[in-house]
Amino acid sequence: MTPNDAVGSGSYEGALRELGEALTELKRQRGVPSYDRLRLRGTKLLGATGASSKATLSSVFAGRQYISLDRLMWLVRTMLSYLDGEEGEAPQRDNPKLEAWRARWYVLDAARTAARRQTAAARPVTPEAFPEPRADVLPEGQAADHVAPPVPPRRPLAASPVSSQSRVTGFVPISDPLRIDAVDASSRRAVQALAISPSGWIAAVGADLLVRLWDPALHPHESVRLGSDDEEVLVVAFSSDDCLRTLSVDGIVRFWDPQLRVQLSSGLAGDSKSPVGGAFSLDGRLLARCDPDGFIWLWDLDIRATVGNRFSDNGAWPPVTALAFSPQGLLASGDGQGGVQLWDSATQAPIGDRLAASIEPSAPVRALAFSPDQQLLASCDAHGLLRLWDLDARTAIANPFPGDDIQGVQAVAFSADGLLVTGDADGLVRLWDQATPQPVPSPSMPLAAHMVLYGMRRGQPTEFRPRLHHGSPVLDIAFSPDGRLLATGESDGVLHLWDPTTRTEVSSFLHHHGPVRTVDFMPDGVIATGDDYGVRFSAQHPHLDRSRYLTGNIGGIYAVALSSDSRLLAVADASRIQLWDASTRLPIGVPLHIPEISPQAVAFSPTGKLLATRGKEGVQLWDPQTGLRRSSLGSRIGQVQAMAFSPDGRLLAAAGEGGVQLWGSTGAWRGGVLVNEGGVRTVAFSPDGRLLAEAGDDGVVVRNPLTRAPLTRFINETGSVQAIAFSPDSSVLAVASGNEVLLVG
Description:
Blueprint: H1 3-9, H2 12-29, H3 35-46, H4 54-61, H5 69-80, E1 82-83, E2 86-87, H6 99-116, E3 170-173, E4 178-179, E5 193-196, E6 202-205, E7 211-215, E8 219-226, E9 233-238, E10 244-248, E11 252-257, E12 262-268, E13 277-280, E14 286-290, E15 296-300, E16 305-306, E17 320-325, E18 331-335, E19 340-344, E20 349-355, E21 365-370, E22 376-381, E23 386-390, E24 395-396, E25 409-414, E26 420-424, E27 428-435, H7 447-457, E28 463-469, E29 474-479, E30 486-490, E31 494-499, E32 504-510, E33 518-521, E34 527-530, E35 535-538, E36 559-562, E37 568-572, E38 576-581, E39 586-593, E40 602-604, E41 611-615, E42 618-623, E43 628-634, E44 640-645, E45 651-656, E46 659-664, E47 674-675, E48 682-685, E49 692-696, E50 699-703, E51 710-714, E52 721-726, E53 733-737, E54 740-744
Antiparallel strand pairs: 1-2, 3-27, 4-27, 5-6, 6-7, 7-8, 9-10, 10-11, 11-12, 13-14, 14-15, 15-16, 17-18, 18-19, 19-20, 21-22, 22-23, 23-24, 25-26, 26-27, 28-54, 29-30, 30-31, 31-32, 33-34, 34-35, 36-37, 37-38, 38-39, 40-41, 41-42, 42-43, 44-45, 45-46, 46-47, 48-49, 49-50, 50-51, 52-53, 53-54
Helix pairs in contact: 1-6, 2-6, 3-5, 5-6
């Protein structure tokens, strides 16, 4: 069958799927080597030029992503080097075993070419998979008056409507700066360009025009340099699968694997003129570059040709000096007079009027960056002035950095989860988090409640007495969903129910299987408690009945977590975690085993799509639906003791011996460690997301999770704090210390 025959009988998606199935079968025959082993083995045998990232390999094997012929041959030759699970020699390129794979690729490529000829209207609006970078050199550019053949646009790229809810009003710093120790010939240290990947890698170009790479989650103050001294880089950008792309002053585009720290391929993009600036689209298929004449060119890195004609606003004056793509494909250009213009890159037509700077004299725009939701555009000029533009209102946000003297900004970027990254003239890279409007309290809330909330959020807590006294140390506490009851579990096996308003006991119940280590309320008000035997479900007041245990005799229970939709219950004993259907009380799948970790800790994300567990060297994130591990987050606070997600899911906080460590929703690093020398045993977000409480041997610290700044600290004279819990309305924090529980608001 010829490639054209195959195209006529099947779709591009079908060809992708068939290639993925064939590769999966070959992998099975060769002992199922992991993606990491394949990458390391292939690099050792065949070099790094044909290597693909782990995310790309996963997509290719799943039949969702195209792969170039050179990379396919690299992958197949690497897998063929395994014989009965043992490592051998890779076959040569002319080995007959490879011919069938070449033929399969030609069928795929022909189907892809046919699919690319479809009209733009037939293409989906959703982002496409990240393509494989070409290993061959791109051709020299055509003359300026040459009209390239039209290329169908991949998706509508006009500005999309934005929501007015929870609009960002500014940013606050969240970490100590990273430093680039590089100077240019004039002894300047300015950061020239920035990018941050979905998983948290940070790439920065220093004054020497060389790229530095950080993995802040594991080594926040250690960077590695990529490339040679003659690679003068103008632009850095990450794709959705963490592949790094760079554009140099000589017009060369290079593709890098940040984990292996090796160059994958390179090629010339454009003519011989040195670009002034540039930007990569998120799907990696388009490069926008501005030339010294002040015009914009679009290059399709996949078909290696220009897209349409060069274009600019108002006849290349003022000249274009900076470019940026939004995640949705909108193009922004900055000019030599400090203005910004939005473009539809499919039609190369301007969108709306130019966003003009109101400060005179204005300076040329140095850098641009879109927020992931396309609501904001950050721009910085040659004077180091950073502006935030509200693209819905098409105006600059007034005072977006309240209380912070931010000057000399030379480079700017946004992360996939909304962090702002800036680089300044002193070679410092800083992370900033979004500040959103504070919610207006309900007018129906009593004045006393307003006063309590005001004090709590400003570091002036009020303790409500008397304290709740117990006969033995309190191990866990929880408020009922309506806030009218507080449950406490003792080390001697007694479960108590209290009225938090009157601070009086409602009822108590003695367990017969050891300490009550965990206490949780189910949505229907039933109380789930964990002890040495399993998880018991008990009814509320007036009669606490004895229900059968959920887990049976599998050992002591150390943590229980309920998903936000109340469908899943995660139960952790000393060495494993079992998921249960909360309604049928039946187990789901096989337990998750985390060796060498005892006891365990668990937390569901607000959407229920992630389950965080304690790992050997930090935190592990799991997909509770499939039981597969998604990622591992390295700890810089020692052994993790507890975890909590923020109500909006944007932050994951872990408590440990060294303090509290924060990650973003994608697992990206979210600033430095919140140091607590006394160690932190537990951590909790308030339900409204405006407070973060941490507790341990030195008492309780309540912080603003946005600024990370402590609001208040208090030490309890009865001993170290074992557990904390916020009331559903966020107005009261319950603190279990020794044999007492104190309520503060």
